[in-house]
Specification:
single chain; 265 residues; alpha+beta; Ribosomal Protein L22, Chain A; five-stranded antiparallel sheet; globular; 4-PPantetheinyl_Trfase_dom_sf
Length: 265
């Protein structure tokens, strides 16, 4: 396994399509990893898709935290709580900053030793061209820019904007409570800027943020960080880690090739 620099952000990835057969074949070790409250929430969730998203998200988070500790803390030993519908938090022991996202069978967990990341994953096939209030999604500058873009191209740009703003809202610790119209960045950046470059945006009147969209197949993934108040930030590297079940080997893949084996088109 490659050695990660302390400033790097590691993003663990998995899919419910790969997880469901493992759950059906041998569920006991999976549920033994989770807390009583997590198991109860899984069983109380009516939607099969939502229950798998939640179960895999917590299972993946616990194993990622354990790996981050160098294996010194077992996955089941982490005490994780959630206040209402808010972000999960680790109790009683130091833990890296983390963010969880899941959508359409894709599940991702980002961890950082020194930063509080925000993460969102969305299927590339999602088109927000219809049924979305663009004035609530876009900043005033973005809304004006949208009017100059051909109608056929707007859906993909709106889906990209939604993914970025979801990640940024998590980085601010507010989730959907943050008005998306406050967040401004280039609606249609040069193609060369993605996925290799960090891009900067602003929260109107309240500072700035950075985001990056690593390349996946079938999914759009966005990682966001809040910019420090003073001086330019030291932007970290990103490692994308396809999750392997316990007992098998997890090999970090370069971010340019990562999803080929994990998320098939």
């Amino acid at each position: 396994m490659q050695t990660q620099a302390p400033g790097d952000i590691r993003i663990w990835l998995a899919t419910t399509s790969a997880f469901a057969p493992l759950l059906a074949l041998n569920p006991a070790p999976i549920f033994a990893t989770l807390s009583v409250a997590e198991c109860a929430r899984y069983r109380a969730t009516v939607s099969r898709e939502a229950s798998l998203h939640f179960l895999l998200g917590r299972y993946l988070l616990r194993h990622a935290l354990s790996a981050e500790s160098g294996g010194q803390i077992a996955p089941a030993a982490w005490e994780i709580t959630t206040a209402g519908q808010g972000k999960p938090r680790v109790l009683h022991q130091p833990a890296p900053g983390f963010s969880i996202s899941h959508s359409d069978g894709g599940v991702a967990v980002a961890l950082s030793r020194r930063l509080e990341p925000g993460l969102d994953i969305e299927p590339i096939s999602r088109d927000l061209g219809a049924g979305i209030c663009t004035r609530r999604l876009l900043s005033p500058v973005q809304y004006r820019a949208l009017q100059a873009i051909p109608t056929a191209e707007r859906g993909a740009l709106l889906a990209r904007a939604w993914c970025i703003k979801e990640a940024v809202s998590k980085a601010f610790g507010l989730g959907l409570r943050l008005p998306f119209a406050e967040l401004d960045f280039d609606l249609a950046p040069p193609e060369a800027a993605e996925p290799s470059c960090w891009q900067r945006g602003t929260r109107l009147g309240q500072g700035s943020f950075w985001f990056r969209l690593p390349c996946l197949q079938r999914y759009r993934l966005c990682l966001a960080l809040i910019a420090p108040a003073q001086g330019p930030p030291e932007l970290p590297g990103i490692s994308l880690l396809p999750f392997a079940r316990p007992g098998s080997r997890t090999v970090p893949a370069p971010h340019t090739m990562l999803a080929t084996d994990l998320i098939s088109p």
